[in-house]
Amino acid sequence: MLSETSEHVLRALRWIAASPRPGALVAEAISRGAEVPRGYLSKILARLVQAGVLTARRGVSGGYVLARPASQISLVDIVTPFEPVLGHSGCVFGGGRVCNDANQCPVHREWGSIRDALLKFLGRTTLADLAAGVKKKTRRTRAKCRSRNRRRKSG
Length: 155
Known about the structure:
Elements: H1 4-18, H2 27-34, H3 38-50, E1 54-57, E2 63-66, H4 75-79, H5 108-124, H6 127-154
Antiparallel strand pairs: 1-2
Helix pairs in contact: 1-2, 1-6, 2-3
């Protein structure tokens, strides 16, 4: 339902929010960790800085950090800059077409209810919610590795 760009954005920000590393993260580390192509990621990160989701720091300890706590960043804040059709005047047919109750496209009513449900979900789900899933998975993976290592040592 979301574009490939939005999927990359969500993976990158989820990785940043779940990262155990303190401070700013460089684009190369984000690219590797989130498995997003480096060139593509640079454009995404720049747009997220413009949207006020990230802050860019220059210098030796430079990189990217969340502009506010992950619990205060909704998914709608994250994907709206990359999904123009989610905008209130956007039309599913694109091309700059304005779609509203007075000037409806053929799928205006159906798409409107789908868009509204998606926006409601994206608005109530935060980056912290996504990162919590990653942290749980990471803890389980670490626990499995420790258990496997103990079995190898004792066997």
